[in-house]
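MODEL INPUT / OUTPUT PAIR
PAIR INDEX: 1
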Amino acid sequence: MSLVWVVLLILFVVIVLSVIATYNRLITLRNRIDNAWAQISVQLKRRYDLIPNLVETVKGYAAHEKEVFEKVTKARTQAIQAGNIKEQASAENMLTQTLKSLFAVAEAYPELKANQNFMMLQEELAGTESKIAYARQFYNDTVMRFHTLIQSFPSNVVASIFGFKERDYFEIEETSRESVEVKF
């Protein structure tokens, strides 16, 4: 075997190993994105489960605030039914805004603010909001690493061959950047 064939064989092996390593990194990042999205979904589900209890608690003190309760319920339903990441982000923004309205109503009722059930729901919701924010950040960081890999040379060649596509970021609207007010 001539030296040229040995060099070509070594070069071929290096290229194959490089493609395999790049493919595996792409798969790892894609799986992390799916996992991060699943973590967001878990926290959003917890948030959706807390909201009816919160609404019922506030209803007991502010029964005439029917419009606010309907908006919160409608926003929760839309968030649960969102089909993709962009729809989910939009629905979550609307839900955050309606929760702000609900807490604004609650501020007008001092007895409600002292209610143990309401205080517990507030704490759980605040904890859930923090977990959602962390999960969103992890998701977006992973999407950014994935995008960097599929856009960088030579990994973009491997990504193109195997059909890896960019994913949507979980973005919030400018008006929703304020956190939900949950302290009383």
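PAIR INDEX: 2
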Amino acid sequence: MNIKHIRNATLVVEYAGKRFLVDPMLAEKGTFPPFPNSPRQDQMNPLINLPMSVEEVIEDIDAVIVTHLHYDHWDDAAKEALPKEIKLFVQNEEDAEQIRNEGFKNVEVLTEETVYEGVQLIKTKGEHGRGEILKMAGFVCGVVFKHQDEKTLYVAGDTVWYEGVQEELDKHKPEVIVVNSGDNQFSQGGSLVMNKEDVYEVYKAAPEAKIICVHMEAVNHWNLSREDLNSFINEKDISSNVFVPVEGESYSF
């Protein structure tokens, strides 16, 4: 497999001969207003440009996976750029209906038994924060990729560390894990995605896995920088297994 980090949670995953685009946010820098009640209210989103053209990002994509519909995972630029016939996987029927209403014709809800062109795609649990903030953040999912010729990949999506992530790790034993780890927050309510301690919990639960940390510094409510996460990773002496890519960086496993 090859995993290219594009920006924020957007990935291009080459797996078993197929190219998957995950959580596309393809807008130009500064297109959207900042998330409210959060840091950097003077900065428009996305905070940074794509590392390549939109055409290059979507070139030869076979299928798209949208873990939820927040605009930093599924934006108007993606809706405009992607062909309406492309295969699109979503977390539930509500998201599927909305995307169909946006003109897309081949939308399928992920389950624990989804198979696409020989690749098993397993919907996984996630919690987009802790406590009361969950009501505002809404439902999310992750996805596990499995194929007989590939290592198992777990893209956790917008989730904090909690028992549901532990259960997915125990169940699927992924060899490669992607976590959203910018510790994004509003003014109240705590972490919406993983913070550095959450990343360490993932490492302790799957110490043999390679862990890729994304969703960093691309939208205004980020709270954990790459520099701080890398310092923590070095402090814990886990840098051989935990990676923090810049936009456009790829890993092959």
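PAIR 2 NOTE: The chain is about 20% helix and 25% strand.
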